[in-house]
Each structure stands twice: as structure tokens, then as C-alpha cells.
Amino acid sequence: MQLVDNNTFLQRLGALFESTKDKGTIWLTHKRLTHDGDDTVMKEEVGGDGSREYPCIVRVTDGKKAKFSTKIISTDLDKFHSAYGALLKASMTTLRKRDKKREKQRAEQLTRKKQRMADPVVINGPKRGNGRRKRQRQVKAALKHEDMKERAAKREEARTKQ
Asked: What is the 3-state secondary structure (H, E, C) of the chain?
């Protein structure tokens, strides 16, 4: 991973956004940098007031060959965030919009399923003779419907307990 200064980082990030405009993914991470150069453990110093300021590190990768980062000291953080935020806002125009049509279809399917669960299965026809098989299918469907209602009630009960 290549460490660059803040302005170079923003320029390269803009170029990376342009290169992945049609297709691609970019991962951004923003963390507090606690490494002082050698292996150190973050312990509270005796007599220290704990007001030590740590720099931030921002890393970027596209998962392939572009990997770079920058270290931001706390005094430059506001200036960097304003430029970084403007760059992100300008680059967010390439995001895909939500597929509202598919979401609407799924919601309609769910309401139809709930409606079917609310409606009872009607059993009619003779027990013997013509129409017997039809009645048997209706009885089997009614039993299945009752079982489905019980399972839904158990799921709802388990959901309310959590």
C-alpha cells in the first residue's frame, strides 16, 4: 500500500472514481492511526490526561492493482473532510438506483400471501360419489392452511419475544 500526501490522495481518488464509472467497486476505509512506528500497546500513561491526538488514515483499493492511503493529522482533518466529502458527493452520481418495480412486486406478493392466509378454505361437495376427490383435495388444503397459520403465529410470537 502506497502512502501519499492528502492532495495527491484526493487527485488519485478522483481518477479512480472516473475509471470505475461504468463498472467496478471501490473500498474506502477511514480509521484512527495508533501505530507510533514500533510495536506499541495503547496503555494509559501514568499522570497523562489522555488528550493525545491521533492521526487518521484513509485507505482506498479497487480490489486489484490500485491501493493507496493517506495520513491526516488532526489539524488538517476539517479541510481534508470538506474536500473528501465534495469528491464523494460528485462521484455518487454513478450509483445504481433502486429497482422500485421489483420491490413493489415483492410487496404485492406478500400482501396476497397474507390475504390467502386470512381467508378460510371452503370445503363443499359430497363425501361419497361424484366430487369426492375434489372434497378430499379441499380438506387436505384446509389442513395445510391451518398448519401454515400455526407456524406463522409461532414465528410472530418468537419475533415479539426478541
From this structure: CEEECHHHHHHHHHHHHHHCCCCCCCEEEEEECCCCCCCCCCCCCCCCCCCCCCCEEEEEECCCCCEEEEEECHHHHHHHHHHHHHHHHHHHHHCCCCCHHHHHHHHHHHHHHHHHHHCCCCCCCCCCCCCHHHHHHHHHHHHHHHHHHHHHHHHHHHHHHC
